[in-house]
Amino acid sequence: MRDDIVSSLLKQISDIEVIPSDGAYNIRKNGEGIERRSTKDVEITTKTDKPGIDIRVAPFAKADSVHIPVVITDSGVKDTVYNDIYIGEGAVVTIVAGCGIHNSGCDASQHDGIHRFFIGKGARLRYIEKHYGEGEGTGERILNPTTVVEMEEDSFCEMESVQIRGVDSTKRDMKANLDKGAKLVITERLMTHGKQFAGSDMEINLNGEGSSAQIISRSVAKDGSSQVFYPRAVGNAPCQAHIQCDSIIMDDAKVRSIPEIAANHYDAQIVHEAAIGRINNDQLIKLQTLGLCESEAEEIIIEGFLK
Amino acid sequence: MLELKNISFRINDDGRETEILNDISYTLEDEKFLIITGPNGGGKSTLAKVIMGIEKPTSGQILLNGKDITNLDITERAKLGVGYAFQNPPRFKGLTVRRLLSLAHGSDLPEDECCAYLTNVGLCSREYLNREVDTSLSGGEVKRIEIATLMARNLDVAIFDEPEAGIDLWSFTMLVESFKVMCKGRHRSVILISHQERIMQLADEILVVANGKIRTQGSREEVFPKLLGEFGDNCGFRGKEA
After folding, report:
1. What ipTM was assigned to the predicted interfaces of this complex?
2. Closest to A288 (Cβ–Cβ): which among B74, B89, B95?
3. Which of B30, B36, B76 is nearest to B54 (CA)?
4. By CB distance 3.0 to 4.6 Å, which of A61, A210, B16, B117 could disulfide with A91?
5. CATH superfamily of B2-87+159-237
6. Residue pLDDT, tens place only, A94-135
7. Residue B91 contacts residue B128 (beta carbons within 8 Å)
8. Which of B103, B131, B136 should one mutate to test binding to chain A, selecting the residue with the greatest count of A CBs within 10 A?
9. Which of B86, B93, B104 is opposite residue A304, by nearest beta carbon?
10. What is the pTM of this model?
11. Residues 176-235 of A with CB under 8 A from B
C-alpha cells in the first residue's frame, strides 16, 4: 500500500498521486512491483529471467499515457531493473517514467534502471523521465539510468529527462540507433548542488538515410558539485544532427563537456555547440532593476534556463 | 524629485585614469520629462547607470525625494521607484514575455493588462505573451518589450536609454505617441536619452551631455532651437569638442 511519502515521490516524478483512472501503469517500490494495470493496447508483463517488465504497445494503437514510476523509501536498497519497451508499427504513445528516492537512513539507496526501447516503423514515442531525491538521512541517493533506443524506419522519439534536485550521484548512459527517416529529439535538464556528481554519456548513431537527431542539454552546477557530459553523434548516412549543450556554473562547481561528432558519410551534417559560463551579469542587473535581490534574480534565471 | 550633486565617475584603464563624468549637478523636478542628448561616448548612458545604481559614482551625491540614495544598491533603488530600460536589453532563455512583465509589475499581471502594455509599444500582444525573451526575438522586439517592462511599473523616475534605437520608422511614430501618454501617466518623471528630434519635442527640459559634462541645460524652448543649429551643421558636436 502507498503512504504519504510514496504519494509525494510519485507526484514529484510522474505527476500522479492517485492511480490514473485509465491507461496502463506499473508502480515499483523498494525493488518490487506493487501495482499494475494493462489495457487493450498496452500489455505490461513481468520478466521471467531477471527483475523488470516488458511493455508492448499494439501496432497502430493510439494509447494514452503509460506511467511506470519507481520509488525507493527504504534506506540501503540497491535495485536494478530491466525494462524492455516495444512500440508497435504506427503506434502513438507517451510513457512517463522516473525514480524518486526518499532516504532517511545512513545507507546508500540506489536504483539502476536499464530501459530498452524498440520503436516500430512509423511509431511515435514521447518518453518523460524525472529523477528526484529527498530524505533527511545521510545515505546517498544514487540513480544510474541506462537507455537504449532502437528506431525503425520513419519512427519518431522525443525524450525528456529532468533531474532537478536531491540525487547525490547519477551516471546516465544512452545509446540510440536510427534507421532511415527516423527522428530523435532529446532534451536533458539537470541541476546539481552540494557535493553531487552527474555524468552523462550519450551515443547517437545515425545509420539510415534522412535520419535526424536534436539533442538539447541544459545544466546548472551549484556549490561544490561536478558534471561531465560526453555527447557523441555519428553520421553513417546522409543525415542531420544538432547537439547543443549549455551549462551555467556557480560557486565552486566544475563542469566538463567533451563533445564528439563523427561523419562517416559525405552527406552527414553534424553540428555541435557547447557553452559553459556563469550567469550573465546583464541578466542579473536587469532583474535587479525590477526590484529583485541578487539571489531571487539568480533563481528566476535558473528556473527559466532549466524550463 | 531627483537631485544629482557634483557627480563624477572615473575609471582606471590600464593604469590611466579616464574621467567619464565630471562634476555633474542637476535637479529634476517631479512631473518633468527630461531628454538627455549629446554625442556618442559623452557620458549619457553612464549617467543613467549611476542614477540606477549600476555604476557607483567616484564622488558626488544622489538624492531621491530628499533621501540620500548614493550608497544604495540597484535593488534598493528599484524598490524606491527608480527604473531603467537598457539600451541593449539582455535576453533570457525560458522566461516568457508575460512573466517578465509580471516581475516588472511586482505581481502576476492579468492577460489583458499585459496585452495593453504590449500594444502600447506596437507589438501584437497575444502573439507575444507566451514567447520567450530569447534569441528568437529580433533586436527591435526585445527593445519594445524592454520599454513595456518600465510601463508595467509605477515609478518615481523612469529612465529610458535610447528607446528608439533599433525600432523601425513605422513603429517609431507609435512609440512617440506612447511616450506622450507616459508623460502624463504612470511615472512621476521621465528621463529619456535620445538623439531623435521628434522625441526631443516631447521634452520639458533638455540636458546636453558631452565630454562627461553638462554643456547646455534648460527648457525645450530654450535649448531645442540651438540644437537644431548644431544638427544642421552635422558636425556640430564634434566640431565643438575638438
Report:
1. 0.91
2. B74
3. B76
4. A61
5. P-loop containing nucleotide triphosphate hydrolases (3.40.50.300)
6. 998 888 888 788 878 888 889 999 999 999 999 998 888 888
7. no
8. B103
9. B93
10. 0.84
11. 218
